């Protein structure tokens, strides 16, 4: 008889499916098994306890029971629940997710007879992977835009441009910066003033002080220093600033200064100022970056198509409570993101149902992807090596200029190390599928057209 067989408890186990990937496990512990556990608990304590008038290991059981009976009963209950639950899950070959739901405080051992209790567990979904060998996957090939270099040079110019005052007789032009005194008067209220406020003249809606103004650029067009501009604006009901939301406001702008961006000349002298040897080298770097960015977008789109193929062709159940937890987390992030973009609470409440629906769909796809990648990793024995993890830690430590040992400890503590492991393994899984697939190169436009057709077909169904 092996040690494992000797330690095995005599229990009766039945299972019942109570939901997607959710099992109810009923465990019956016979009276003899309960007595055996109690006897072991008393024996273990008897070897160690010292009572007045008795040497260690010599105290009678009745005195131990009188002195420590409550504690022994609690320890015996916890041991029975722990050992019997673990044994039951192993006997039934249940691949569980998370810990079983057991309310220890509500369960009590009977004075006599058998003890039965139920637990509910989430189990790992059974996944049948779709065909992987030789499947056709589209690869949308992105290329560097022909105006990429010029656009990047313009962005660099703006980054190093100086704000220069316009002459008093010069009118406002697009992209100018205005320094102005602003007076905002909501209907029936006292005016709110903001001196020396900055306004930026761009196409369409802009902000004057703390309120949005439609066609602000047209309102200020042709104005000079000392001029005034007035308009009315209806602030939306869902505006983030409670002081003005939903109100009609009179806006008065008194222009004090007008500044424009003076761009630096694009020459070798400018290139040297930003760390390049010449303009030619700067352009070469921009071209190199543009090609890398195009390649990154190509690979990202290819990986997305692989994920979509797996999600569309791999159907399985997910535990409802895990989906709900993930959906809540996704919804909170989405809610916070929209709040930061300026959406008001009223508008968010109106969109709540849509946000919840999107969050649930996103949560399901995220969880499905995790389980699918697990199945692919198991099928092809894909793992992240210790060297790859150490490389990630070393890179992070170098960026933060800190010791790798300390960085490893913090990354493990906040979950970043586990997240890197999952992401790195997912990339390996995707590359394995791409390696076995037939890759068809298409334009990004063709790829989007096909996605739209698939979406329309799904809607029709």
TrEMBL record:
A single GO cellular-component term on record: cytoplasm
Biased composition regions of type Acidic residues, renumbered to the chain: 444-461
Localization per record: Cytoplasm
Top-rank taxon: Bacteria
Pfam families membership: Trigger_C (PF05698), Trigger_N (PF05697)
Catalyzed reaction equations: [protein]-peptidylproline (omega=180) = [protein]-peptidylproline (omega=0)
Segments forming domain Trigger factor ribosome-binding bacterial: 12-156
Function, in words: Involved in protein export. Acts as a chaperone by maintaining the newly synthesized protein in an open conformation. Functions as a peptidyl-prolyl cis-trans isomerase.
Family: Belongs to the FKBP-type PPIase family. Tig subfamily.
Annotated HAMAP family: Trigger_factor_Tig (MF_00303)
NCBIfam families linked to this entry: tig (TIGR00115)
UniProt protein name: Trigger factor
Natural source organism: Sedimentisphaera cyanobacteriorum
């Amino acid at each position: 008889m092996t040690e494992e067989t000797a330690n095995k408890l005599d229990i009766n186990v039945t299972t019942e499916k109570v939901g997607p990937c959710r099992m109810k496990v009923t465990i019956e512990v016979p009276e003899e098994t309960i007595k055996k556990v109690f006897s072991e608990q008393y024996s273990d304590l008897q070897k160690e306890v010292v009572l007045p008038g008795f040497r260690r290991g010599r105290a009678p059981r009745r005195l131990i029971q009188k002195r420590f009976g409550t504690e022994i009963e609690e320890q015996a209950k916890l041991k029975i629940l722990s050992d019997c639950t673990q044994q039951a899950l192993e006997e039934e070959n249940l691949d569980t997710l998370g810990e079983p739901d057991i309310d220890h405080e509500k369960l009590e051992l009977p004075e006599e007879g058998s003890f039965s209790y139920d637990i509910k567990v989430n189990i790992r979904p059974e996944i049948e992977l779709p065909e992987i060998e030789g499947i056709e996957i589209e690869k949308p090939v992105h290329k560097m835009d022909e105006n990429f270099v010029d656009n990047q040079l313009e962005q660099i110019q703006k980054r190093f441009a100086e704000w220069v005052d316009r002459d008093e007789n010069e009118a406002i032009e697009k992209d100018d910066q205005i320094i102005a005194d602003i007076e905002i008067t909501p209907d029936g209220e006292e005016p709110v003033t903001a001196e020396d406020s900055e306004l930026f003249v761009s196409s369409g809606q802009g902000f004057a002080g703390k309120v949005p103004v439609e066609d602000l650029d047209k309102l200020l067009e042709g104005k000079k220093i000392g001029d005034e501009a007035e308009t009315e604006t209806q602030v939306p009901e869902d505006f983030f600033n409670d002081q003005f939301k939903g109100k009609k406001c009179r806006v008065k702008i008194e222009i004090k200064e007008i500044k424009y961006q003076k761009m630096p000349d694009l020459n070798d002298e400018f290139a040297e100022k930003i760390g390049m040897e010449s303009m030619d080298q700067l352009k070469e770097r921009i071209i190199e970056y543009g090609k890398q960015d195009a390649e990154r977008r190509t690979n990202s789109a290819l990986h997305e198509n692989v994920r979509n193929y797996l999600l569309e062709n791999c159907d399985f159940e997910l535990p409802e409570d895990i989906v709900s937890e993930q959906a809540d987390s996704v919804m909170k992030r989405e809610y916070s993101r929209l709040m930061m973009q300026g959406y008001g609470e009223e508008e968010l409440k109106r969109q709540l149902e849509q946000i919840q629906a999107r969050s649930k769909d996103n949560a399901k796809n995220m969880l499905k992807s995790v389980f699918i990648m697990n199945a692919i990793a198991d099928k092809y024995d894909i793992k992240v090596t210790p060297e790859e993890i150490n490389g990630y830690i070393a890179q992070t430590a170098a960026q933060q200029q800190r010791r790798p040992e300390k960085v490893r400890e913090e990354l493990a503590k906040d979950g970043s190390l586990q997240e890197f492991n999952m992401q790195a393994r997912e990339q390996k899984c995707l590359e394995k599928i791409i390696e076995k697939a037939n890759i068809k190169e298409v334009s990004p436009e063709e790829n989007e057209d096909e996605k739209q057709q698939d979406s329309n077909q799904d809607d029709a169904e």
